[in-house]
Predict the structure.
Amino acid sequence: MAEPLDDKTPLWRDQRFTGLVFQAAVLVLVVGIAGVLLANMVRNLQQLGRQLDFGFLRNQSGFNIGESILPYQPNDTYGWALVIGLVNTLRLILIGFVTATVIGTLSGLASFSSNWLLRHLNLIYIEVARNTPLLLQLFFWYFVIFFGLAQGAEAKQVLGWFLISKKGIALPWPTPGASVWGGLLAIALLGVVAYLTWRWRRWLLEEKGQHGRLQTGLLLGTAAIALGVFLFGLGWSLPRLDANNNILGGVRISLEYAAMLAGLTFYTGAFIAEIVRGGIASVSKGQWEAARSLGLKGGLTMALVVLPQALRVIIPSLNGQYMNLAKNSSLALAIGYPDIFATGQTTQNQTGRAVEIVLLWAITYLLVNLIISVVMNQLNRTIQIRER
Amino acid sequence: MSPNPLRSQTRLAWIQKNLLNNWFNSLLTICLGCLLVYGGVGFCHWALKSAKWGVIPTNLPLFLVGRFPADQYWRIWLLAVLLAGLSGCTWGMLASAAPRLFSPFNLVAVALAALTMVLFPLPEGNGVLVRGTLLALLLLLLATSWIAYRAHRGRPALARWLSPAWGLMFLVGFWLMVGGLGLPAVSSTTWGGLLLTLFMSLISIALSFPFGVLLALGRQSTLPLIRWLSTLYIEIVRGIPLIAVLFMALIMIPLFLPGNWRLDLVLRAILGLTLFTAAYLAETVRGGLQAIPKGQYEAASSLGLNTPLCLGLIVLPQALKISIPAIVGLFIALIQDTTLVSIVGLFDLLGMSRSILANPLFIGRYAEVYLFIGIFYWAICYAMSQGSRYLERQLNQVK
């Protein structure tokens, strides 16, 4: 349409041109700085007589690892030691996700309780946990609480079924063997049966308008049988002391693991509680009132109406908290739990391979966080509103 | 929220409504009450009978200023005086919109602080002098806040001088701590305790601020290369634990520098904290940038402003204002995160406690020491989070 103007925009005022020049300048700057730093590094490493090389991972490690699920001996390789550390990290954070979510959800719900005492105790917990450093909390759990409980030469009984001593905490655990798997299989089958019965009952209630009392009875019966199998079919072995004060039976977890788990759970739990509280508060008041006018009681209102809507707000923010928990698990180094960070640190002390270890750390944690993100995004997609 | 019953209700009715309104809540109240009494009695028994609190007053200077040379303590005191005066001015000016300067809550807090100063056990020696100075500091804080409150009502333009004054304060504080320019130099290896914690977090947040804002702008940029580089940096740093970044700063920075350069340990840790915080700050500021409507950009460019001017004059002032509460939150997190430098061998408040606990004289006094420094961290972080909530409310009202 319009002819290009005679007095063209000068080149230096053309946004496309300045943009290109700016990008080129930044690229040159970044590459230049990185180049100088890397050149320095290569020169410094050469002076130390080294080069970037992951071959040391095949060498014999020679250090001991306090606890591991997989078999490990000091004459295994550094690579295997790091794998053991990674497994320990995963063991910590996967359990931590579950416990932190449970504590966080309960605490978030508690801030809506009509009980004044519960509400205010909960507030104190959240304000203390959020406003003190995690590392301090970990030290407190480890040195004050668990070491305080474990003091003395002999193991002590706590809460009836737990034994605590300097060597760790012994928990009741099913005796390994075929009966455990049989019991678990039976419970799973009962679960399927209960699910089908529940569907059947709902179908009767909704489509036929029948009372479905028979099915309710069936459900209760299934639950009773499952409870029986759980209590008596799994062959629980309670930890007990023999004459020499050795702990027999049960499963032992170390004090370091327990302190890490407790610290991470209560710290992350407080943040999750705030997210849950915010999510529930974001559900409009009309939803509560509508549910109440339909005759739903308090608990049912929460479970059927409010929580499903709150979840849409909660899940995206949980992602960040889970990533924080995974990253914070690296503080295990401070209290001596052999996770990937601590084993890496020992390896680096022994071999001097700082650059390689830092790279391994970075890749490990980035991968873990990436996996968490992908899983949480998938979960997020399934709970978002599906428009008709 | 307050436990006071409404006027029409009696105390009994309040209890019935809030603690015993159905069987479940009644049971809960009884269980929690028993737990509370049991825990409280246990704690009091421990605190009064078996705890040995001697470790705190004996090591108080270590907790507060580390191994800062004792003959240079006057510099710290001078810093405290300046800080008290300037904080008082800031408080007075910020509160000038409120009808009263001292709310009952503030008065209670001040009274508690004064009581602590008078009653807190100090190591032997010039206890009276120290207590007197502390009380004088508190008085100075109150007096300057009152003067600033009155002065600001008369001349609102005074508030403009606050930011430059804090900038100057920053430089003076740095000078007093490091020395030079006529003062004897104090080596950073002697810094420790609360002083180091505050120093490192303040310097790190100040240094990470420009870097973080640039990264945030870069991530929002229309230029692809800038966007990719910024995003890459932010996402990588946010995916790595701080302790790994600190180790990297400690071990790798000497490798990255030319052979004969040596960087101070504190400086390296600050560099690590800065690089780490910048990525989080960038995400915080990005939130503010995203809240700026597109019309602002369009209005700026139709006025003929180019990109730097548009960002600097129109967009950033608004975006930063929105993100102030979140930045305070970030600063709280940073104060907590500085505890990690104790793992890499610095003596911040937590690191100093660990070194005190390693002393055979105080072995096993974990609970006392950790409770004591826990209260410090809690008080600082809680006060700041309350302050940021107050700021947030103020900002929302203006809107």
About this structure: Residues 251 and 268 of chain B are 9 Å apart (CA to CA).
